[in-house]
Design a protein that fits this description.
alpha+beta; 33% helix
């Protein structure tokens, strides 16, 4: 069940369009977690890695937190990422500053630096938002190989403003399990694709397809299809 995603439209929706605010949460609940994980897998495979997603999600011992996915990447060795997904966009989190889809290099780079500083605190070695810090605790597992924490975040960000590095690691985590944290910036990756002339990406999104199927069976739009840019 594959879905074609219009990259300009999704970046515009999340990062730039104020009229999307009333609909942002609903769209994210419909598709974002599955979309984010499959996009991460798409990125890793395009980088030349063999990638596997596990059917079970990362959980801590006892009644502690749970994350969103285990993703294994195989190159010369196996690396297992415990992934936490956050769909925070300018509509409802942080300073609410829009970022144009076609922002110039300087504007985009400066935005990414400031957004990274908003999320990550180098002094404490933790996120500034407690909702993400659970990824820094090692989840229980039976995997052989290295375990890495990975924050899969919508916002365009990078510690030095590199607009062509949507996947990066940061040293300085201060806990006993990990010393590094890996980031995947979805907006950065999609913007990089657009700069390279890639207008759409096709992903396997079976849950999203079934949700759309049920919605279409229940609600039938009588008026003409909404045009681009309209509510």
């Amino acid at each position: 069940m594959r879905v074609i995603i219009d990259l300009h439209e999704i970046v515009h929706f999340y990062d730039e369009n104020p009229d999307a605010r009333p609909h942002s949460s609903a769209v994210k609940l419909l598709a974002h977690e599955e979309f984010a994980i499959q996009l991460l897998i798409d990125f890793l495979r395009r980088s030349g890695s063999e990638v596997k997603i596990w059917p079970h999600v990362p959980t801590s011992v006892g009644r502690g937190p749970r994350l969103d996915a285990w993703i294994t990447v195989v190159t010369d060795v196996e690396v297992h990422y415990q992934v936490e997904v956050k769909a925070w966009s300018f509509h409802g989190y942080g300073d609410g500053k829009p970022l144009p889809v076609m922002a110039d290099v300087e504007e985009l780079s400066q935005f990414m630096i400031s957004k990274f500083a908003q999320y990550w605190n180098a002094e404490t070695g933790r996120f500034n938002f407690e909702g993400i810090n659970k990824v820094l605790g090692q989840m229980k597992h039976s995997h052989a190989g290295e375990i890495r924490p990975l924050a899969c975040l919508w916002a365009a960000m990078h510690p030095s403003g590199d607009i062509d590095e949507p996947f990066f690691e940061v040293i300085g985590v201060r806990n006993k399990e990990f010393k590094k944290i890996w980031f995947f910036s979805i907006s950065s990756y999609l913007r990089q694709c657009l700069r390279n002339g890639i207008k759409t990406i096709e992903l396997e999104l079976p849950k999203t397809v079934m949700r759309l199927h049920h919605i279409n069976k229940i609600f039938r739009v009588k008026s003409q299809l909404l045009q681009r840019g309209e509510e």
